[in-house]
From TrEMBL:
Belongs to the uracil-DNA glycosylase (UDG) superfamily. Type 4 (UDGa) family. CDD domains: UDG-F4_TTUDGA_SPO1dp_like. Residues 37-194 form the Uracil-DNA glycosylase-like domain. Transmembrane segments: none annotated. Pfam families: UDG. Keywords: 4Fe-4S, DNA damage, DNA repair, Hydrolase, Iron, Iron-sulfur, Metal-binding. This is Type-4 uracil-DNA glycosylase. One of its GO terms (biological process) is DNA repair. GO terms for molecular function: 4 iron, 4 sulfur cluster binding; deaminated base DNA N-glycosylase activity; metal ion binding. The keyword Cytoplasm does not apply. InterPro entries: UDG_Type-4/5 (IPR051536), Ura-DNA_glyco_family4 (IPR005273), Uracil-DNA_glycosylase-like (IPR005122), Uracil-DNA_glycosylase-like_sf (IPR036895).
C-alpha cells in the first residue's frame, strides 16, 4: 500500500495540505498524533527535504521546530539563507517512534514506509517546482536519490534528481545535534548549505 490514493493530482498546496491528515498509506498514522505537512512559499526557489517529523513536530504540527530545527535555523543564518523564503518538508510525514517509559524515541522509517509516503513528496515537488533541492539525511536521500546513494560520500556536491532538479545532499541537522565533534560537523553542515546557495545562483 502507498499514499497514492490519498494524494490529489490536481489543485495546489492548499488542497494537498487538506488531504494529508486522511492518509492511511502506511501504518504510521496509527500512533502519530498528526501528519506534518511541509511549510514555506509555494513557489520557493529552494526546497529542503528532511527525514521525518520528530516528537516536537508531531505535537506542534509544524516542521523543524525541535532541537534539529533550532540548529537548522542557526545554520541557515550562517549560510545566508532566509528560512521564510525556502520550502521545508520531510520525506515521511508521520513520526515513527518507540516508547521508552513516557518518552517517545525516534525510529528511522523503514524502506516500505519511505516508499509509501513518496507520492506526497512527489506532489510537493510538482507544486513548488524548486530550482534546487537540499536533501538532508539518509531517509531523504533514499526517497530522492535511491537506496545506493551515500550521503557521507557525496555530500556537498552538485547532483540531479530524477525529475531534473539540481540538488545538494547533506546530513540531517539532528546528526549534528548528536555529534561528539559538534563545531566541526556544524561547520561542514553550513558549508554544504553554502554550496546550495552558490548552485542556486547558477540555476535560477
Amino acid at each position: 500500500m502507498t499514499a497514492e490514493e490519498w494524494v490529489p493530482h490536481d489543485g495546489g498546496m492548499r488542497k494537498l495540505r487538506a488531504r494529508l491528515p486522511d492518509c492511511r498509506g502506511c501504518e504510521l498514522w496509527e500512533d502519530a498524533e498528526r501528519a506534518v505537512a511541509g511549510e514555506g512559499p509555494v513557489r520557493a526557489e529552494m526546497m529542503l527535504v528532511g527525514e521525518t517529523p520528530g516528537d516536537h513536530e508531531d505535537k506542534e504540527g509544524h516542521v523543524f521546530v525541535g532541537p534539529a530545527g533550532h540548529l537548522l535555523d542557526k545554520a541557515l543564518v550562517e549560510a545566508g539563507i532566509d528560512r521564510s523564503k525556502v520550502y521545508l518538508t520531510n520525506a515521511v510525514k508521520h513520526f515513527r517512534f518507540e516508547r521508552e517509559g513516557k518518552r517517545r524515541i525516534h525510529k528511522t522509517p523503514s524502506a516500505g514506509q519511505i516508499t509509501a509516503c513518496h507520492p506526497w513528496l512527489t506532489r510537493e515537488l510538482e507544486i513548488v517546482k524548486p530550482s534546487l533541492v537540499v536533501v538532508m539525511g539518509a531517509v531523504a536521500a533514499k526517497a530522492l536519490l535511491g537506496s545506493k546513494f551515500r550521503v557521507t560520500q557525496d555530500r556537498g556536491k552538485r547532483l540531479e534528481l530524477p525529475g531534473g532538479q539540481t540538488a545538494v545532499a547533506t546530513v540531517h541537522p539532528s546528526a549534528v545535534v548528536r555529534s561528539q565533534e559538534f563545531r566541526r560537523d556544524f561547520g561542514r553542515f553550513v558549508d554544504d548549505l553554502r554550496v546550495a546557495v552558490k548552485l542556486l545562483d547558477q540555476v535560477v
